[in-house]
Amino acid sequence: MSTRRMSSKSKRVSQADVAALAGVSTNTVSRVVRGDPEVSDATRRRITALLKEVDYRPNYAARSLSAKRTGVLHVALAAPMFHGHGRSLLSVVSAAADAGFHVSMSNLWVRDGVIDSRIAPFDVDAVVILGGQGPTVDMAVELGRTVPTVLLLASERNLDRISTVSVDNVRGSRLATEHLLRAGVDSMVHLAGPTSWGDSGTRREGFEQACREAGIEARVLSADSWNARDGYDAMTSLDQLPQGLFAANDQLALGAMRLIHERGASIPGDVKVVGFDDMDGADCFAPPLTTIRQPFDRVGRTAVRLARQMIEGGPGQDVVIEPELVIRSSSSL
């Protein structure tokens, strides 16, 4: 059956029609439509392109009416739009659109960790919160009493009637630290993020675990923000540079690398450097930065999947996604 013939029919194209055309099961097509993150990227791209080609349109309007739903997913921005939050937001919006939701947004981030508690001034089917600091947890728990709620990029688990999606920061930090240890580093410093962020604490925890197991001192410097300038300023307190540096994000690593260069040391010859995030441009640092890649696209797609399950009456779940070590020349000759 050709896609041209299928799309020209007067009847609505079904998932079974698309499955027959693609040579896959109807369940696979359904998982792509639902935004299931476990579908392979290649399959998702192929099925998504086919869905658009045949003009497949889920009848979510009828479903919403019969279930007394609005068809709206609300996204609350409760943190600055750092690299990870921006990427996760784009993924949530894309996955929500694929699942047939309209998306509304509110910006709750005021300044310096202050959160505006006014979140959804109208009825919505579910709320996704882009968080990372303590106040967002209380907000999520309060919202979860009345609307399905998913909290992203926070370290808390087992919250009452709340789903959470996060990256395993402890595991990521261990990967970074163990990589430096394998490279022969026995003098190491962790450049931590601001203490008000849960990610900062869990990344420090992973670093300290790995150092303790290796029998080396776990030296920690704390930056006042996630920004490169504060990373540079924190590093100025060091009288002597370590052999290895693990920064809690790529921006802090960038600031640290500037100070290392200014002191006449080489990277990775004198100091091996690892960051966290794999932000856009990390491969163009001087030298290109070894870092921990967080799969933010999967974070967003998982959030929408959990929101849909909770809308259908499912329980809250905690999903922790594994990060990946990306080795570049800042830590490897």
Description:
By secondary structure, the protein is an alpha/beta fold. Helix content is 41%, strand content 17%. It has helices at 3-8, 15-22, 26-34, 41-53, 60-66, 83-98, 134-143, 169-182, 198-214, 228-235, 250-262, 296-311; strands spanning 72-77, 102-107, 109-111, 114-115, 126-130, 149-152, 162-167, 188-192, 219-222, 244-247, 272-274, 291-293, 318-321, 324-326. β1, α6 (83-98) and β2 (102-107) form a beta-alpha-beta unit. The relative contact order is 0.12.
Observed structural traits:
333 residues, alpha/beta, 6-stranded parallel sheet, 12 helices, 14 strands, 41% helix
Mean pLDDT: 86
Find the structural class using helix and strand composition: alpha/beta
Oligomer: single chain
Strand and helix order = HHHHHEHEEEEHEEHEHEHEHEEHEE
